Amino acid sequence: MRVLSAKEGYNKFNDIRMQIPVCFIIAMEAEAKPLINALSLKEDVDFAPGLPCRAFTGSFNNNPIALVLNGKDEQYNLDLIGTQAATLTTQLTIDYFHPELIISAGTAGGFQRKGAEFGDVYLSYPNVVFHDRRVDIPGWKEMGFGGYSVKDIRSIADELNLKTGVVTTGNSLDMSAQDEAIIEQLNGEVKEMEAAAIAWVATLHKTPMFCIKAVTDLVDTEHPTQEQFMTNLKLAVNNLAIKVQEVLIKLLG
Ligand code: ADE
């Protein structure tokens, strides 16, 4: 059988009309694994031919759901993280699954001074912003920050005793002094690397979205973020899988 080129595969892929109402978008496989296992999701090998993103599908209490990963960088064999990969994955997810709701799930940094603790799970509210797109010209400045509104999940957060906050996105794990000042100005509580890009694409398609993020590190402490991240990854992703399922019960019954 002749192997399709990426372009041919993409055209064929766009012809498939599938509808899965709730789609999760997650950057790292390690962030998704406990959830894929808990929900017994299976890979859909027809998703995104020739491209790194990978999709897994299944159901939750008889409701179809999908989970899409950015996939791995071919050169480095590491999970693709950050806003470019998130943008591509979100567009491909919308093309293929036509979701009614997108949930950006994963890990994040939190702020000790705002009461965050390792393993805490946050829901996004009221919006998602970029903190590292600095353009000091009126209008462009605001567009740089984005400020995309998210689905109002405050009642779910209350019922499940989850914290809520502004999710702030940039392309670095560390936090420069400039980033910190902007995050403070934007009232950011949850610092990660994909949500605002996902929110932007979702907004283009008028598809509601929100985020669920588990804290691996406290960015306003002395300990290097990367060390905190590695130490607390397992705790955070296990909590994430548990809370995602509790949120799904509230959303879908
Ligand atoms: N993911 C987990 N921790 C993070 C941090 N501190 N910054 C960006 N992304 C993260």
Q: What labels would you give this structure?
A:
253 residues; alpha/beta
At a glance:
This protein has 253 residues and is α/β, with parallel strands linked by helices.
How does this structure look, described?
The structure is a single chain. This protein has 253 residues and is an alpha/beta fold. It has a single domain (6-252), classed as Rossmann fold. The protein is built from eight helices and ten strands. Strands 1, 2, 3, 4, 5, 6, 7, 8, 9 and 10 form a ten-stranded mixed β-sheet that branches. It is globular. It starts with 5 loop residues before the first helix and ends with a helix. 42% of the residues are buried. Bound molecules: adenine.
Order of helices and strands: HEHEEEHEEHEHEHEHEH
Tell me what portion of residues adopts beta-strand conformation: 25-35%
- Shape, please? globular
Major sheet attributes: 10 strands, mixed
What's the gyration radius in Å?
18 Å
Q: State the domain count.
A: 1
CATH architecture: 3-Layer(aba) Sandwich
Helices and strands in order, then pairings?
Blueprint: H1 6-15, E1 22-26, H2 29-38, E2 42-44, E3 54-60, E4 63-69, H3 83-97, E5 101-110, E6 121-130, H4 140-145, E7 148-149, H5 154-160, E8 163-169, H6 177-185, E9 188-192, H7 195-204, E10 209-218, H8 225-252
Parallel strand pairs: 1-4, 1-5, 5-10, 6-8, 8-9
Antiparallel strand pairs: 2-3, 3-4, 6-7, 6-10
Residues 107-109, 173, 191-193, 216-217, 219, 225, 229 line the site of adenine.
